[in-house]
Amino acid sequence: MGSLTHLAIIMDGNGRWAERRSLPRSAGHLEGGKAALKVIRGCLSHGIGYLTLYCFSTENWKRPKEEIDYLMGLFSSRLRAEMPRMVASGIRLLHLGRREGLPEKVLDAIDEAVERTAGCNALTLQLAINYGGLDEIARAASKAVADGIDSFDASTLSGYLDNPDVPSPDFIVRSAGEKRLSGFMLYQSSYAELAFYDRLWPDWDESMIGIILDDFDSRKRRFGGL
Ligand code: IPE
Ligand code: IPE
Ligand code: MG
Q: Which of 1, 45, 114, 129 would suit a FRET pair with 63, their CA atoms being 20 to 30 Å apart?
């Protein structure tokens, strides 16, 4: 047992949620955004210090343009709309992932939110948008090389990750039943606990945080020791 400082979530199942209701996939993403707000509130009320949400992977560009455009619009409009509430509730926003390739309106909304919430300290919220674990590691290695580093040990790269001051996740959970990481936090996940819940992402709310905390409490982390 130990405390859950950093929870990271692979938000999956928006499409299936919509399909089951004969709705367009965009309706699932819209509802998924609402679920994210509930889960963020749950983390705040349980005193979790860091939450990372996997919003868009470097592989999600393979989806139809219409769906990508909808998601990008949702990211920028929700970020802008939630900014005052983020400041009021003490949420510090960070972006995790590659900036290149993201539309200007998304980068602008992220940059403004990062700037305006820089002094907040109740919860650090990392949004993984245009994120791939291999991409983050490759970019970290490039930054290290550009710094003149030519010899690596197991911890050299950690200082070159996107947000080096964020501790590694204690618990990585995924909605919608798929049992894989899909490239999520490959460097930081080396000793994370993992859990996969069948509930589709749009059906998540604050109550899932209680379930997650109970699940985490039952884990015995050994970190290679006895
Ligand atoms: C997760 O839901 C959201 C993103 C990956 C952007 P999906 O859109 O992957 O939903 P399913 O997996 O098709 O149900
Ligand atoms: C993982 O979900 C990425 C996000 C949650 C943003 P996907 O739906 O893209 O993953 P796969 O394709 O099932 O592995
Ligand atoms: Mg999916």
A: 114
Q: For residue 57, give both structure tokens.
A: 């992977």
How far does the centroid of ligand 3 lie from the alpha carbon of residue 15, in Å? 7
Which one of the ligands is nearest to 56 CA? 2
pLDDT in tens, 118-148: 999 999 999 999 999 999 999 999 999 999 9
Query: Any idea of the CA torsion for 119, 82, 67, 137, to the nearest 10 degrees?
Result: 10
Please calculate the CA angle 53-15-178 and round it to the nearest 5 degrees. Answer: 65
CA of residue 182 to ligand 3 center, whole Å: 9
Ligand 1 atom with the smallest distance to the CA of 16 is 14
Q: CB of 26 within 8 A of CB of 70?
A: yes
**Where residue 154 falls among pLDDT bands split at 50, 70, 90?**
confident
Tell me the whole-structure pTM to 2 decimals.
Answer: 0.98
Q: Which of 32, 42, 74, 34 is nearest to 202 (CA)?
A: 32
The label of the residue with tokens 């990372």 reads: 52
Q: Side-chain half-sphere of 81: how many Cα atoms within 13 Å?
A: 9
C-alpha 186/C-alpha 169 separation (Å) is: 11
In order of start, what are the domains of the chain with their CATH numbers?
A: 6-199 (3.40.1180.10)
Q: How far apart are CA 141 and CA 91, in angstroms?
A: 30
